[in-house]
Each structure stands twice: as structure tokens, then as C-alpha cells.
Here is the input.
Amino acid sequence: MMNLYQLHSFVTVIAEGSMTGAADKLYLTQPAISQQIRNLEEELGVELLVRGVRQIKPTLQGEVLYDYAKKILQLTQQAEISVKSLGAELSGVLRMGTLNSLGVSFMSPIISRLLRHNPKLSVTIDYDLGPALIEAFRKNELDILILPEIKGQFGADLVDTNARFLMSEMMWLVGPGKDTDMPKQVHLKELSKYPWIAFSREFPDYIRSLDTAFKDQAVNLTPIFQSPNVGTLKRVIESGLGWGFLPASSVKKQVKMGRMNQIQVKDFTYEIEYFFYSKSKSGDQKLIEVLYQTLQQQDKT
Here is the structure.
């Protein structure tokens, strides 16, 4: 029967586009990965992969299995984290700081899960702009920071701090779902066809990168509305007043439900890398570790 190792290898092959890439990712040999895929195909009685010269792609049956396999692996990891959280008997006070755009869609489910299983735990989350959160962390007013890489994004450094990569996400160009005439793909120069909604202040490096791209393409846009509050921007865009870039995690649900349209921009992309910052000499490393693992799992759901 199928096992988790086979599914993990299969999902990684699809994600990496090759057996070699999957082997490097999983620290296995290429023949070992190939054997697991062959065993999986034999058990199911179908071919799962189209083995091209440069890239491997899933067959139709492979696409179906890929979707199920991701869900199975995610549920397995969720179960592991939930059991660890339940058995950890976490207690104490945890003070966290992050951006508004990571609030409802990312942080709320995690905190609810931790508090449900750990009644002696008290959690505080401060939402603010990056520089203010970094300053609060320096003053020991916060135990944890969840922010984009602070040197590149905010020009800041932290001493005696552990920084661990947490996740990455793209900025998506989105427009109102009710607009059936909205194109699927555009160039930057075409953005002037619609009223512009600007996401301001949360990601300074994103703003600099977009401004540079606009200048290079001789694009001159004046926003009809701008705000650092992603919830407000979502409502403005959903109502049909314009389009703009927002973090993917904050709009995936709206795009999936058809309340927003995602538009691919051919000549501009921007990826945000988030890190988990904690004090090197923090007292409750057990609590911090459980939180980090839970946050990592949330990114996969």
C-alpha cells in the first residue's frame, strides 16, 4: 500500500520538477527516489509522471494524486503538531509582534489552537509597522517577531537574536471578482487602465522595487486610495473601486471564492520572505519551539 515516504517523494518530485532536485531536497539518492515513484506507480497501476528531458510533469492521474498527497501530508503534520501542542502543557506569557497583513489569515488560527489546548498559556499579539515592532523587541517588550527579513526590508539589525526562515509568499495583483472583463495577464504599462489601489508602508522594499519598475517602464500611477491596512484594501478592491498588489496569503480565500480576480503581471514579481525572530537567551525555549513548529505548519495549510 501507499506510504507517507512515497507520497512525500512524489510531491517533492512534482514541486522540484526532477528526480535529481527531489533527491537533493530530501537528502536521498536519485535511484532511491526513482524506485519509490516506480513502486507507487506499480501499486496504483498507472503512470504518474511524464518524464521529459528537462522537466518532469504529472500525468492526469498524477495531478489527482498530487492534490490528495499534499492534503494527506499536511494533515499528518497537523496531527503531529497538535499532539505535541496538547502534550506540551504550555504555560506562561508570550508576547508577539507582527504585521497587520499576517493577522486574521495566518496568526488567528494558530493562537486559537494553542490556547484551546493550553489553558495556562497567555498570548499577546501586537500589530504594527516593522520599525515600531523592532524597537519594541529591542526594549524587551516583545519575545517574538514575525517579520520580513529586517535588514533588506527595514535596514535594521538585531543582536543576540535567533532568526529562522519561516515562509515566503508572493505579492499578487488582484481586482474585483465582479469584473468579468478583467484580463488574466498584463504588463505594468497596462495598469493605468484601472483605478490604482496602493498597499503602503508595511513592506518598504516592495514599495521601492515597484517604484523602480514603474520608472523603468515609464508608468505614472496616482493611487485613488492607499492604506497599510490590508483588510481595508481588500474591501475597497472587492467593492469594485480598483485593483492593486496584496500579499497572497491575505487574498487566497477571496480569489478561490471568486470575490477577487488574480492577474498575472508579466514584467514584475515580488516575493516576501518571513523570518521568526526570538531572543537567544529567552527563558522558555520549549514554548518558542512549539510556536515555531506550529507556524511552519500553518504555512503549509
